[in-house]
Amino acid sequence: MEDVLHVLLPLLEVEQGIVTACNGVFTEQIGYQPQAIIGKPVASFLSHLSSEKHQPLTLKQFLAQAGRAPHGMLACAQLTDNFHYPLPVRIHCAGTRDAGRFRLCFQILENKSLDPITGLRNGWAIRCRANHVLEMANRRPVNLALIVLSVDNFSTINFRYDFDIGDLFLTVVGQKLQTLIGEKGLVVRYSNAKFGLLIEEHNGVSSSVFSERVLRLCNKLCQMGDAPIQLSADLAIHRSFSLGVSAEGICYPDYHAMEVAAEDALQDAKKVSQSNYVFAEKQIGSGIVYHKLIIDAFPQAIEQYQIQIHYQPQYALNSGRLIGLEALSRWHHAELGHIAPDVFVGIAEEIGLHFEFDLWVVQQVCRQIVAWQETRVPAPKVAINISFKTLEMSTFIARLEHILQQTQCPTPLVELEITETANAHNVSQLRENIVQARRLGLSIAVDDFGTGYSSLKLIRTFCRSLDMVKLDRTLIENICKTELDREFVHQIIALSKVLNVKVLAEGVETAAQAALLHELGCDYAQGYYYHKAMPAEEIAHLMQAMQDSAPQADLLR
Ligand code: C2E
Ligand code: CA
Ligand code: CA
What we know:
Elements: H1 2-8, E1 11-15, E2 18-22, H2 24-30, H3 34-37, E3 46-48, H4 59-66, E4 73-80, E5 86-96, E6 101-108, E7 121-122, H5 123-137, E8 143-151, H6 155-160, H7 163-181, E9 185-191, E10 194-201, H8 207-223, E11 229-232, E12 235-237, E13 241-245, H9 255-272, E14 277-279, H10 285-303, E15 307-316, E16 322-333, E17 337-339, H11 341-350, H12 354-374, E18 381-386, H13 388-391, H14 396-407, E19 414-418, H15 427-439, E20 443-449, H16 455-462, E21 468-471, H17 473-476, H18 483-499, E22 502-505, H19 511-519, E23 524-525, E24 534-535, H20 536-548
Parallel strand pairs: 7-9, 13-14, 16-18, 18-19, 19-20, 20-21, 21-22, 22-23
Antiparallel strand pairs: 1-2, 1-6, 3-4, 4-5, 5-6, 8-10, 8-13, 9-10, 11-12, 15-16, 15-23, 15-24, 16-17
Helix pairs in contact: 12-14
Bound molecules: ligand C2E and calcium ion (CA) (2 copies).
């Protein structure tokens, strides 16, 4: 029995509470090299698992009795392994020799730290280790870097060969990474073809020397992709690697912040080219923390009306008449300053508040239209940006109708601007909502036309329910400079005439652009050439001035 245990289970020899030897299984399964534990008190890495209900003895009691106890005595404990995560184990004394000397056998009850495909540690393990090191960094300075490595175009290996070859490729890459890093850090596989390398330096080297080392390592990792990876005698596969690295010389508050930073850098690396590495931004305040602050502050910003709606005028190109306004949200945060609407609208979608936010904007705009009307300001139609995700909601129309009734806002004065921002999951609901909105008397515009590959598909799908197409600013930018852009816009205008929808050009910044658009048959325009988005009071003055002055064409400077 004792021999079997010796071969199968991790085993320690203990004398007077101090480890004197361990077997190979212990090293292999638990991760400690013999030199790291021999001579150490066994209690320094083995602790009592208090959550275990059927605990026959505390660890202390167990160890105290171990030298005298009979075979097979069980106790549950927690073994903090080399990488600083707890492994629940059942320990038992495999037999006593003489007083104070005994053998402890372990049975690992659960090991959450291993990746079954490559045999490497996993994302859970790297998090435990990094958080432990970062915690230690409060007491003793330590250099730490996280490299997230992704195999470029890995999925094609699974397609071309099969999943077994894909797994083998990951295993061999894992081994290569492990060899390259050696004792300097921890190599893990997160998921799919993504690996993490946590590089540690505890010997008090300066952060610039450490950064140099990390940089050299990144070069070596990228060079790994220069030659094919040999999987067997007759199979070698060539792939490059992209790397994202946590910022140099920054002590992150926790592993999560570090991983997000390295992941962001990896996405940037992939954008540039393959076999490339990018370091994360130095100021952690810029990306992650800023993002988190906005997420935290956003719900309150809606509740407390901290977001204001500004309005950008839209004009008819032939008469100079004001034909509409676009509602654009503005948020000035007391500490964060001006937050761009595309940033917080994106966050609203991320945290599922887009529906409530878009309806909140609709309500504010409807109230404003009615307020203008009550003061006899001749309000034109107001266009409201509605997220694609909101348009898919089954209760959208009911909520919209409720707001229109509650505010008594005339429906012909409201336009919904739709942009294809995300993949639509519920196209039939979306289509139904657009048709219903139109039945209520609202008009529909397709925003940002010319960006995104499926805008054409969008107007094809909804052509019977559309009133207007808005040409994106990027299409207008160069119409006076390049023949191609001019022709492109010309063709889109022609297409809109076929579909019987009006065309509005966004981002018109010069008189020459406005004149050319008019010549090309574009109906309306909006942009800094006329006005930026303005608060409601300024719009009231503008509309009043327009009413007082005639002809209105004078407003087109
Ligand atoms: P958008 O719908 O394409 O709005 C037009 C953007 O172009 C606005 O930016 C506007 O200020 C800017 N712009 C207008 N004329 C010119 C010009 O001549 N030159 C240049 N360079 N820019 C011009 P803004 O206000 O920063 O809004 C950005 C985006 O955020 C909007 O793009 C829209 O997609 C979104 N957004 C803004 N407010 C809301 C809102 O209340 N709800 C939703 N769902 N999205 C909103
Ligand atoms: Ca818009
Ligand atoms: Ca737009």
